[in-house]
Amino acid sequence: MDALMMTGPSQGTDRTEVREIETPRPGRGEVTIDVAYAGINFLDVMARRGDAGYAGAWPYAPGLEVSGTIREIGRDVTDLAVGQRVAAFTAGGGLADVVAVRAGFAVPVPDRVPSPVAAAAPLMLTTALLLLEDAAGFRPGQTVLVHSAGGGVGGAVAQLVPVLGGGLRIGTVGRPDKVVPALGNGYDRALVRDENLTQAVRAATGDAGVDIVLDPLGTTMLETDLAVTAPGGRIVLFGNAGGGEQAPLPPAGRLIGGNLAIGGFSVSRLWATAPRRASAGLRRVLGLLADGRPHLAVTEVGSLADAPAVHQMLAEGRGAGKYVVRLRG
Ligand SMILES: NC(=O)c1ccc[n+]([C@@H]2O[C@H](COP(=O)([O-])OP(=O)(O)OC[C@H]3O[C@@H](n4cnc5c(N)ncnc54)[C@H](OP(=O)(O)O)[C@@H]3O)[C@@H](O)[C@H]2O)c1
């Protein structure tokens, strides 16, 4: 079978290739999946760059989320059946014809959910939902500020806020040409991250500040986050897109005095350490999709061989929305 492989750290596409490898068989407690669609994520790019904690070893098989049908079932798996349509978090190796996953990482897909959209659920949509509900404790009517609003996770958050009861959605982007994609994702306001950002956010909220900040930019925006968050608000750090050193968090006194909370979120670590919570999030997302909300548009990529170019687009910050690779179906 074919699988995408990254052979060593690189800033470009030169060390990513489609390789023929042995088709995996399920171990105990595992299933294999005939992949229909595989989601492409910025986390694949962070692995390709060699950021610490992403590619465990080289060659690295990227791909963290898929939809498809159960191909084979390992020992002790009782709640899934061969041929069943599932969406799964894969912990790597998802950009391939077949992938083996822990059975607890695969969740049945309701009939009404198309496979391309289901492939964006285990990582991207589950991240967006759990960021809002679990990590930030979103309540209807709250104001949410999201950095990198033009991309996949940014778009999913914008689509989920109305589903969860609604609230003002302010997105930030790194370049002026990404304002339109962010507004297209559903943001009420899209602001460029320039020296006027603090003022612009405060103006957009009638000087009240925001209740929630969702920030995947390491600690580079933390001072701004603190300056625009209203008392009682929460900042959730969930990535380090630039890959640089992270600064220390502010002293406790500043958080106590400001009535502010800073938290962290990692969906892949949640799948690894609390899989029931992660799979409950995925089930909920698939249920919402079956009910027609959120409405998520994905861009289909024709084959595995096209995936490195999409990784490069994301690496250069040129991505818009969510990309999934069609393997079959
Ligand atoms: N913690 C988790 O569980 C989790 C799960 C999924 C994704 N994430 C994080 O969420 C973010 C969005 O992920 P996504 O898959 O939806 O990707 P994405 O938004 O399509 O791409 C990442 C975006 O990061 C911004 N960026 C900032 N500095 C960058 C740099 N040095 N190089 C490239 N891009 C840079 C760019 O947007 P702007 O310049 O417009 O900001 C870029 O479009 C990523 O940072 C990812 O690591 C975290």
From TrEMBL:
Q: Which domain of life is it from?
A: Bacteria
Q: Which SUPFAM superfamilies match?
A: GroES-like, NAD(P)-binding Rossmann-fold domains
Instruction: Write down the Pfam families for this protein, in alphabetical order.
Output: ADH_N, ADH_zinc_N
Write out the GO MF terms.
oxidoreductase activity
Domain Enoyl reductase (ER) as annotated: residue spans: 12-325
* PANTHER family reported in the protein's UniProt record: QUINONE OXIDOREDUCTASE-LIKE PROTEIN 2 (PTHR43677:SF4), SHORT-CHAIN DEHYDROGENASE/REDUCTASE (PTHR43677)
Q: What is this protein called?
A: NADPH2:quinone reductase
Its source organism is: Actinoallomurus bryophytorum
Q: What is the lineage of its organism?
A: Bacteria, Bacillati, Actinomycetota, Actinomycetes, Streptosporangiales
